[in-house]
């Protein structure tokens, strides 16, 4: 017996993120709040003083975080981090190198949805754009912080990412 396959159209995310919301909504309509594994890409931007760029989010997930988000169906991690950096910060970036994989993080959203978030972290370099181009739906503001004086992020995974990058800087590996 041949395996049953279904194909879903691969689309680019619209400016307001509707295709991705529809994709996750389609999955959730089938599995409810059952835990699912979702992949994310996040970007580290450092300024000339080795301060890190963080995003303060709007909405249910309000608080400070490393800019990034979920991969779209058919998208690579590198393409996702470039897209997410533009959406979250308004900045155009190029990927310098991967920094790590942060994959043992379990979250429950306020609506009860459960996920294991597997995130690929990249060092990225700003090549254009401006903070004014960030999505107001997702972003309250962006700012650079010294690693020792940064605000606490609302996701443990982000805290671990930032601690990891701070160690790379302190040991001259970055």
TrEMBL record:
Per its UniProt record, the required cofactor names are: Mg(2+)
Keyword Metal-binding assigned: no
Give the GO molecular function terms: hydrolase activity
Assigned keywords, A-Z: Hydrolase
Record domain Nudix hydrolase: where: 35-169
Looking at the keywords, is Iron-sulfur present?
A: no
The protein here is known as ADP-ribose pyrophosphatase
The source organism is: Lacticaseibacillus thailandensis DSM 22698 = JCM 13996
